[in-house]
Specification:
The chain has no helices and eleven strands. The chain is mostly beta strands. Strands 2, 4, 5, 6, 9, 10 and 11 form a seven-stranded mixed beta sheet that branches.
């Protein structure tokens, strides 16, 4: 059973970079055909996919956030990290990491709910001065 746990600051100031880490246990982030995803849910809104990093290290991002997003990994720690730059109060949300298995013909787009296999519990990030 794969388990995921988000960690990082709960408060970030405007214009700074938000940085969150997801620690994976019970499975390896290099397992073939598995992708490691970040999503967020702003208050009162639906879930928004941010991007994912593949078992190979290749990254895919939502077009709407691509210019500000970077997802990286540390295979020695079995962790992957989200960095979102130039944050504003509109980036306030609960951030989730997840494991997902998208089909090869649909890489790079927001994953369907049924493709997700495991989720972290989520972590609240507030952008405020």
């Amino acid at each position: 059973q794969v388990q995921l746990q988000e960690s990082g600051p709960g408060l970030v100031k405007p214009s700074q970079t938000l940085s969150l880490t997801c620690t994976v246990s019970g499975g390896s982030i290099t397992t073939k055909f598995y992708y490691w995803s970040w999503s967020r849910r702003p208050p009162g809104k639906g879930l928004e996919w941010i991007g994912y990093i593949a078992y190979s290290g290749t990254t895919y991002y939502s077009p709407s956030l691509k210019s500000r997003t970077s997802i990286s990994r540390d295979t020695s720690k079995n962790q992957f990290t989200l960095q979102l730059s130039s944050v504003t109060p509109e980036d306030t949300a609960v951030y989730y990491c997840a494991g997902v298995e998208p089909p090869y013909y649909d890489l790079g787009s927001s994953p369907r709910p049924e493709w997700y296999d495991s989720w972290g519990q989520g972590t609240q990030v507030t952008v405020s001065s």
